[in-house]
Amino acid sequence: MPELTRRRRLLVLAICCMSLLIVSIDNTVLNVALPALQRDLDASTSGLQWAVDAYTLVLAALLMLAGSTADRIGRKKVFMTGLAVFTVGSVLCSLAPDLSSLVVFRMVQAVGGSMLNPVAMSIITNTFTDPRERARAIGVWGAVVGISMAAGPLVGGVLVESVGWRSIFWINLPVGLAALLLTLRHVPESRAPKARRPDPLGQVMVIALFGSLTYAIIEAPNAGLAAVLPYASVAVVALAGLLIYEPRRREPLIDLRFFRSAPFSGATLIAIGAFASLGGFLFLSTLYLQNVRGLSALHAGLWMLPMALPMFLCAPLSGRLVGSRGPRLSLLVAGAAMTVSGVLFAAFEAETSDVTLFLGFVLFGVGFGFVNAPITNTAVSGMPRAQAGVAAAVASTSRQLGQTLGVAVVGAVLAAGVSGSSYADTFVSAARPGWWILAACGLAVLVLGGVTTGRWARGSAERAARRLASEPEAREAARAGV
Question: pLDDT of 335-358, one tens digit each?
Answer without folding.
Answer: 999 999 999 999 988 888 999 999
